[in-house]
């Protein structure tokens, strides 16, 4: 209970959370219908007005918003506030080239800082910490979110930015950094770099870390924790909501608390678009409840998770938890009729001590049939016989989770190229129709 940043709001009784949500939802719907042509048109088509929102369930009367809607109205068409009231812009590049752009008013920045402070406190950050932020400072939301939140907690922030990995490790050693943030796969790489310059990451002063921006399987979490000898928390977020700071796991590590005073949660079947039942897997759909610059209604995140029904967590927080994001629905690949998510493969790989930190699935077409090869780095150089034995073992174990047998190639350490900020797990070279 002592790591609550905002005790009143984090432990608000459920009834009060829901009353607050309804009040904020009504206000948000009125604002977007009055100010955003896209929502005015969509609501007219569905014949719904702000007065039709009488209960939280009435959110289902409202239209969904998709990434494509944001792209079509980019860069500023979805703003609900005149641009002169906005003070910061962030964007995420995505895959199609048109960036998703979000503008923040001073109040939006204030809320974001508060939510990040809650997440960081939940992960153990205090004002006594030396907090290193190895994330690129730029239009990506990551670095600024952590920076604002850590300052709000009162920690000493080292804005180290991403890259120059040796320098990052030396800064940690020099300033005796106690808490770090980052993109999970980069933190593993920093661990390798530390070892390569003779520094054992587990002997540094770093005792906690808060990581996100990409999927963190329990195996990956354990691996980071073992490499660095630190407590690892998972933080989820997306540019469209605020950036990082939407949810984080508490010390019980059995789900991420999502800040329901600022976001209304739904979980839907991505095909039928109907709500899934309690504790059933589905796509997370979020409505912003306090955003001024770019409020969003029923935003389809594409992220697959399960919502828990539990009223109050043993940590005292009343905000509902969701399981770590299992996948993005657009990352699901279908091979020979089987649905496969990269996380299923990663869960198998990360259990093996001989397997290194980097891997990818390469898809191609052979004789008109889809084939999948899993390329995985070994932790250290292996003999040919040991590599072959490991390949056979991994093939059998992967088959037990995805039904068919993929080919597996064990590669020497550091042979898979690093590609951008987030790890790229799927290389799809299949022949397109
Ligand atoms: O990645 C915000 C962020 C920065 C979160 C740093 C946490 C830490 P975007 O670039 O807009 O924003 O990407 C958002 O990344 O829809 C998820 O698919 C994925 N993602 C983010 N956090 C997690 C996580 C940032 N903890 C997209 N687990 C989201 C799994 C995550 N996926």
Descriptive report:
By secondary structure, the protein is of the alpha/beta class. The protein folds into two domains: 329 residues, Rossmann fold (3-Layer(aba) Sandwich); 97 residues, GMP Synthetase, Chain A, domain 3. Helices cover 31% and strands 24% of the residues. The protein has eleven helices and 20 strands. It has an eight-stranded mixed beta sheet with strand order 4-3-5-6-7-8-9-13. The chain has a four-stranded antiparallel beta sheet with strand order 10-11-12-14. A four-stranded mixed beta sheet has the order 19-18-17-20. A hairpin with a 2-residue loop joins strand 15 and strand 16. Helix 5 crosses helix 6 and helix 10 packs across helix 11. The model has no long low-confidence stretch (mean pLDDT 94). The site of 5'-O-[hydroxy(phenylacetyl)phosphoryl]adenosine has 20 residues, from helix 6, strand 7, strand 8 and strand 12.
Fraction of residues in β-strands:
15-25%
Number of domains: 2
Bound molecule kinds, no repeats = 5'-O-[hydroxy(phenylacetyl)phosphoryl]adenosine
Helix content: 25-40%
At CATH level 3, the topology of the largest domain is Rossmann fold
Tally of DSSP β-strands: 20
Radius of gyration: 22 Å
CATH architecture of the largest domain: 3-Layer(aba) Sandwich
Alpha-carbon distance between the termini?
A: 56 Å
Name given to the CATH homologous superfamily of the largest domain = ANL, N-terminal domain
Nearest-integer average pLDDT: 94
Unreliable residue runs? none
Spatial shape: globular
Largest sheet composition = 8 strands, mixed
Number of helices: 11
Strand arrangement, major sheet: 4-3-5-6-7-8-9-13
User: What structural class do the secondary elements suggest?
Assistant: alpha/beta
Task: Just give the CATH class of the largest domain.
Answer: Alpha Beta
């Amino acid at each position: 209970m002592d790591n609550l940043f905002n005790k009143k709001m984090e432990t608000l009784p459920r009834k009060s959370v829901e009353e607050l949500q309804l009040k904020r939802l009504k206000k948000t719907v009125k604002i977007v219908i009055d100010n955003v042509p896209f929502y005015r048109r969509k609501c007219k088509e569905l014949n719904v007005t702000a007065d039709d929102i009488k209960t939280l369930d009435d959110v289902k009367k409202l239209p969904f918003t998709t990434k494509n809607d944001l792209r079509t109205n980019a860069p500023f068409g979805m703003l609900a506030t005149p641009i002169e009231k906005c003070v910061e812009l962030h964007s995420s590049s995505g895959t199609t080239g048109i960036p998703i752009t979000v503008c923040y008013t001073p109040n939006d920045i204030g809320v974001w800082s508060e939510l990040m402070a809650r997440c960081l406190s939940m992960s153990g950050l205090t004002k006594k910490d030396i907090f290193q932020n190895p994330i690129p400072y730029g239009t990506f939301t990551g670095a600024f979110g952590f920076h604002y939140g850590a300052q709000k907690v009162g920690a000493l922030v080292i804005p180290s930015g991403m890259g120059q990995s040796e320098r990052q490790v030396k800064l940690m050693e020099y300033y005796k950094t106690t808490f770090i943030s980052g993109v999970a796969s980069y933190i593993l790489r920093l661990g390798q770099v530390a070892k390569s310059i003779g520094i054992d990451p587990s002997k540094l002063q770093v005792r906690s870390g808060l990581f996100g921006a990409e999927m963190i399987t329990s195996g990956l979490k354990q691996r980071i924790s073992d490499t660095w000898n630190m407590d690892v928390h998972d933080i989820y977020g997306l540019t469209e909501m605020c950036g990082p700071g939407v949810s984080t796991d508490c010390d019980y590590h059995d789900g991420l608390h999502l800040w329901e005073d600022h976001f209304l949660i739904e979980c839907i079947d991505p095909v039928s678009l109907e709500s899934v039942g309690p504790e059933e897997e589905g796509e997370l759909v979020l409505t912003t409840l306090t955003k001024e610059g770019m409020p969003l209604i029923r935003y389809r995140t594409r992220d697959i998770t399960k919502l828990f029904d539990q009223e109050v967590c043993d940590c005292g927080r009343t905000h509902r938890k969701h399981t770590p994001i299992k996948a993005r629905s657009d990352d699901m690949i279908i091979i020979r009729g089987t649905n496969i998510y990269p996380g299923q493969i990663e869960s198998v790989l990360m259990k093996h001590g001989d397997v290194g930190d980097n891997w990818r699935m390469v898809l191609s077409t052979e004789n008109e049939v889809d084939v999948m090869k899993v390329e995985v780095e070994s932790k250290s150089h292996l003999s040919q016989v040991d590599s072959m034995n490991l390949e056979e073992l991994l093939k059998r174990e992967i088959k037990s989770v995805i039904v068919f047998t993929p080919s597996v190639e064990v590669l020497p350490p550091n042979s898979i190229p690093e590609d951008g900020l987030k790890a790229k797990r799927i290389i799809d070279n299949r022949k397109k129709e």
